[in-house]
Amino acid sequence: LDHIAVSHYIEALQVGMAGQGTAIGDGIGISLKRIKDIDAQSKAIILVTDGKNNSGRLGPIEAAELSKRLGVKIYVVGIGSSAPAPMPVESPFGYRTVVPRAMEYDEKTLKEIARITDGYYFNARDTEKLQRVYDEINTLEERTEKVEEFVNYQELFPW
Question: What is the pLDDT of residue 105?
């Protein structure tokens, strides 16, 4: 609920801060580790990626097969395409500029991850399409849960 803290974290984000590689298989593996013991009727991972797996130890297809064995669907959201896209780079003189760079985008593998896990593949080329994708996933995984909320408060009015 601390919106100021979240705002500070968002302001500190930088392109490339997680490294230059894309470890799709490792990302799926970490997600599976976190949700495998959750008691739920349906379990799903939303994988949002802008590229091709070019890093990590676990391959994306191996991770998808593991996900299938654990009964976890993967909804794959590919961001972009193989066409050149503007990327920020720093010149040798310290100036930041934007140059078009060819993107690695392996749509075939992303579709295969979704197929193996009985999930879906989506391609979102802009923020409007991304919002529509999230809305659609919301309808696919719609459920209601009862949550008990406990609030501990201290009455300060008399002071």
Answer: 83
Which DSSP string do the residues of 1-61 spell out, in sequence order? --HHHHHHHHHH--TTTT-S---HHHHHHHHHHHHTT---S-EEEEEEESS---SSSS-HH
| pLDDT for 10 | 84
Gap between the Cα atoms of 77 and 114, Å rounded: 10
Each residue of 137-157: pLDDT tens digit? 888 877 666 778 888 888 887
Between CA 63 and CA 29 the distance in angstroms is: 6
State how far Cα 114 lies from the chain centre.
14
Q: What is the pLDDT of residue 38?
A: 86
Cβ atoms of residues 87 and 98 within 8 Å? yes
pTM recorded for the entire structure? 0.72
Task: Give the residue from 43, 45, 12, 9 showing the smallest Cα distance to 26.
Answer: 45
Q: Based on the number of CB atoms within 10 Å of its own CB, is 134 exposed (0-12), middle (13-18) or buried (19 or more)?
A: middle
Q: List the alpha helices (DSSP H) in 70-150.
A: 107-116, 127-140
- Written as six digits, the tokens of 101 are 């760079």
Q: Alpha-carbon distance 129 to 111, whole Å? A: 18
